[in-house]
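User: Please predict the structure of the protein below. I'd like the answer in C-alpha cell form so I can feed it into my own downstream comparison script.

Assistant: Understood. Taking the following sequence of 127 residues as input:
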Amino acid sequence: MNRGRRALWQEVPVARRRMADPVRTAAVRAVIIVAVTLIQAMVAFLCTLARSWFGFPAVLCTVASTIVATWAVLDVWVTRQVWVQRHGVRSEPSSTARELRRERRKARRQGRRRPSEEPSRADRAAA
C-alpha cells in the first residue's frame, strides 16, 4: 500500500545531546519572555507613530519587559553553569582515544611481564 511513498516521519540522528531539564525550562521561559517583549515593543512603536494615548504606558512596559527579558536570558546562562558544575560534563571517549588507551595498557602489561624474568623476591631473600 505504501509502495513508492516516503515515510511521513523519519528519525534523524541528533548531532548534539539534549539540554538538561532545568536548563531547557529556563530557555523556554526566556524565549517566551523575549517574544512577549518584542510584541510589546512593536505595539509601543506603532502606538507612538499613531500618537495614541497608549503609546507612553506601552513604552514604559516595554522598558520594564526588556529588563525582565535580559534577566531571563542571564538565568539560562547561570542555570547551565550551575548544572554543569553540579553534575559535570559527561563525555564519551572517541574510538581513537580508546585505541590509544588499549595500546598503553598493552605496553604496561608487557613491561610488567619482562621484569618477571629476574629472580623474584623470595629467591633474593633465600640467597
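That's the full C-alpha cell string. DSSP finds four helices and no strands in the chain.
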